[in-house]
Amino acid sequence: MQRVARRGGTAQLLQWLAVRTGAAALLVNRSGVVASPPSFPVGEAERDLVLRGVREITARGLKSAAIDQEGLACVVLYLDGPPGACVPLLAAVMPRPAPPELPLLLADATSVLSLCWQVEHARRQQRRLRIADARTREAVLHLLMNGHTTAARQVAGALRPALPDVVRVYVIEGPPAARGTVAGALARVVVDTWIVPCPVYADHMMVLAPASSEAHTDSPPQWAWPSSVADTCWIGVSDVVPLRDTATGYAQAFHALAAARHRTERLASFAGHPDLALTIGPAAAAWAGVFLAPLHAHCARRSQDPDGTELLATAASWLSFSSRATAHLKIHRNTLTARLTLIQDLLGLDLNRLADQAALALALRTSAADIQPRPHHRTRGGGGTAPSLDELLALPHVVAWAQRQFHPLQTPGIPTCIAQTLTTWLRLDARIGPTAAALSLSASAVRKRLTRSEALLQRSLLRSPSAIHDQWLALRALDLA
């Protein structure tokens, strides 16, 4: 019995008992529900007899019971377990007459079965705790990504460590075991890190490291890569950002990850460029206030319909994760489609067009940055005049920002076809097929050139969160100039 238990636990031990005795051996709980599949097929009469035995032993407070009924014999015994646990009972049912040594053999088996069940029960409890911890951390991350910092801190209060005020976001890509090893190595260097499986990409893990604990907050901490995972993982690192800007830090780390895939060291930090919303300044806030006014003013007609706040969160998630927003928001794809249709109707946009996507993305980023418009600019509730998007993009400092966006593609030694492919792809709403037809190339050739653009720009283009909205706005600014 000990050898069988070590090989296969309770299932193998029940099977061994069935072969040894010729009885159907199974575990049942106090309500008579089968807690483990029977080793032999059990009919209705056998189940009724087992249920009667469980009721007898429970009602009378016995440790064991033997019952005969209509040509069947049943023996029921309690297993040992920790206090407070719902320990099952061992039941064996077979045709009469039962061999006289059956009760003694089952009694001997209860000690080994009890230990096996306790081990399996502890493993199940550990798995439930891991799942609960991961889901709670995912909920905290979801709140942070949507800007609900106060609620995130309240939920995180049940866990450890406490959320820091400023963070550096790491995105680790690789096999599950390797991701965990790398995250653990980082946690040993930077104390009080938050390790969260990415809710959107199954091959990603996110690490929120307190930047205040680093020796130099202007550069990420260095740690020794485990040799076993040195060739299987990539890491993208964000700048130091306030906790409320975790979504920005994630986007930065994701873009850095795209650059890390093309480096031998497999690690890259975000190559900082000024954010367009901050580059434009207060005028962008005035434009965004008018642009998003229909969403802010929207009220749900029914209690189950989304209000303006939910629509804003849905738009931000879809622009960041495309169809994977269903995993981020935990909603059905039909719900996502219905919300996007409502957003289009309210704002008068066609979200199949990259131009409208880019405008909405800029407005949402400007709103999240909490930039205050000047008094002479019109806001949602005031007078004045708000500039158009083209007027904002035509500003000289915005044109200079746009030139910096494309500068890596225009350096000596870079084929002109790389920039040509990128600009054509942007003008054709980031669609591979039409771009390939316009340039007389295959779809794989277009993807290879865009991958080269990713490496040069150090930005993700083909995988969301993508930099295509910034790149389109930069291209539009250059066209206006």
UniProtKB/TrEMBL annotation:
Highest taxon listed in the record's lineage: Bacteria
Matches recorded under InterPro entries: CdaR-like_regulators, PucR_C-HTH_dom, PucR_C-HTH_sf
Signal peptide range in chain numbering: none
Domain PucR C-terminal helix-turn-helix: 312-365, 420-477
PANTHER family: CARBOHYDRATE DIACID REGULATOR (PTHR33744), DNA-BINDING TRANSCRIPTIONAL ACTIVATOR ADER (PTHR33744:SF1)
Protein name (record): Helix-turn-helix domain-containing protein
Organism lineage string: Bacteria, Bacillati, Actinomycetota, Actinomycetes, Kitasatosporales
